[in-house]
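Form 12-C: Joint structure prediction
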Amino acid sequence: MKEKIQNIVEQYQSDKTRLMDILWDIHNQYGYISDEAVNQLSDALNMSPPDIRETSSFYHFFHAQPAGKHQIYLSDTVIAKMSNYDEVHTALEKETGCTFGTIDESGTFGLYHTNCIGLSDQEPAMMVDKVVFTNLTTEKIEDIISALKEGKSAEEIANPNQHPHTEVSYIDAMVSTNIQNKGSVFFKKERNYRVILSKCLSSIPEEVIETVLDSNIRGRGGAGFPTGLKWRLCREAEGEEKYVICNADEGEPGTFKDRVLLTRSPKDVLLGMIVCAHAIDSSVGIIYLRAEYWYLKAYLEKQIQEFHDEGLLGKDILGRKDFHFDIRIQMGAGAYVCGDETALIESCEGKRGTPRLKPPYPIQEGYLGQPTSVNNVETFAAVSRIVEKGGAWYKAMGTEASSGTRLLSVSGDCSYPGIYEIEWGMMLNEVLRLVGAKDAKAIQISGPSGECVSALKDGEREFCYSDLSCNGSLMIFNQSRDMLGVVKHFMEFFVDESCGICIPCRAGNVDLLHKVERVIDGKACQQDLDEIVSWGTLVKSTSRCGLGATSPNPILTTLNKFPEIYKKKLVVPKGPLLPSFDMDAALTGHKNAYKILMKEEAE
Amino acid sequence: MKTEITLDGKKIQAQIGKPLIDVASDHGVYIPSLCYMRGKPCLGTCRVCSVRVNGHVMASCTVPVYEGMEVEVDAPDLVDMRKALVEFLFVEGNHNCPSCEKSGRCELQAVGYETGMMVSRFPYRFPVRTRDHASKYIWLERDRCIFCQRCVEFIRDEETGQKIFSIDKRSTHSSIEIDVKLADKMTPKQVKRAADICPVGCIIDKDLGFNKPIGERKYEIKSIKERILKGKTNE
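Section 2 - Result
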């Protein structure tokens, strides 16, 4: 073991900022990160052992104890729970012989829950080791687990025709891309990247930035910061090196557009990154890929290699002596908060995914303290089209203030879940018609962190930055769905994914979750609803980052749109005590203590 | 360079880039905090110094002064928010002031008084947390940790620069950890400093215990507000 870990560390030149990669290499080799491994790393990296655990324990795919030869993660989403999640859950426990959160006696299987793995259009879904299985049923689980027991690897089962990892056919063997319509910007075939880049590089960086500014494109991760402005600020910032980071940590439940873009148009994304490198004068790019998308890694590496071979990446790009740019992939390890750009940067530096304080902003001091432009996968892909067709072309689409198109990841109660490219400005009703949502009651826009809207009241609202500024996630719930159950699930998600560095988010979400449970249990009164609003506002206003600033949204927005689902569960207090106060339970503790004391006295 | 900003309706001159919390303090406006230490890098973990800047609630330790700032500190909703955050800290751990060695010199307790907290509006959690007394000089009483991160960031092994204190896990599962080997190398001065900067009674100097009679303890002699306003650090 000693030598193996030594080799791993040397591969990264004992650089502690590469701790994520080092931990992954160890985890991939041993299935967990033992204390022995941590102690050895401690010496090699000049970090105390708890400091190494500070990073590893933050990410839920890193285990500190043996976690099973086959590590199975069932995607725990509201969408899965609307199909046959429960039977799959039961089948997994029955077939593997272990309960969730544990490993079986032989150490063959470890069963775990995980938050959305970016497959909401084909749930229930699960990760097994580094591959995924979709549209699960009891029969499928029986087949998969029995094949694993026979000694087959998860990958052999998922990829029976043995497609090479580097080919799109390997990904297609496992997941569907479900692109449902054709738009103007994305998924164009047979693009001549060399010609597009060549044309782009013939313009000076300032002109490229001008084109991006002209297009009026805004960031597609959710915050909607103007991309051209971000690049200009990053270009103007002083720094020895500048970095381009592609945020492929698509963690918002219900989103999967980036997975599809990286599968169908990976070179659009790479080209967008190269354009950014030219614009801000960078020579190093990083794609931060969520661990849930491990099956895309080898394929993306091959795409990068092909660009190298064609002279579009590497040294002297397209023969230009002053332009060098390379891209590496940084794997995440299971933390929603790393979708926040500063948390993502911390993770790239080998640390916990704790969002930084701002200022300074990443464009001033980002990765390794240098000016860094972090952009979404979709933003880069769109930019690759903007430099090809011009800013005006892009701006002509959409609305005045929200130009262009955007990808929606549609899931839930509709006939055609999948990917849609819509022009900004489209009305909600129109989208619902397009996706075949006939009996929609509620639509969760932008995932749990976004807004729950009503099909009845909000149908005329528009997708645009000033109204429904959707980050791409669109989950549809019909009249039969238990919306309080959905809200509870979303709050559990935030409790689980809070990084825990600030008190309002760490503690507040727990109390808000308990309030929802109280409503569901029929033990809440009006005072509880009033407190939900007041505590929710507190968490939103005082939290450190976007996670806490949005985590109360599931409750607050449903309370606003569907007050009746709460009101009909309320009870009126009888007497001075709250209905949630359980007198018997409160007195049992005293009774028990009294009994024990009396017994001790007697002895 | 100085600029004019508005602090609770009053126009004051403040140095651009200086932390807002310090500027307020220099102008006689006390903003409570449990993680910020003047002159040290900002941690921004406790959020107790939340104020409103140009309409947005922000932790004042994280905000550098800029031109045209309009700051509200004493608006009733903000006073209540700061109090609520202190209440969160009390219910999240187990804080039994009368039996705590840090009582009377505990910043959480002192700030509790300053914000007028009587009882928490949030349900008490009574979490079960194990304590760690493996190191020679330090008693780690996890019940009282508020995850301010002062010890994590400001106490390092003097020889190697390694972290002595770290946070394990995330979210509600977080816990403060100590590297016993490095902790046992700490000088008495460093141990004292670690115990002093801990705003609660989580890092306890094993040799100290209850060393001052009630009535003569740090914040009984002079309140935390008076200390901060006099520019004295909270060490």
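Section 3 - Comments
Chain B has a mean pLDDT of 96. DSSP finds eight helices and nine strands in chain B.
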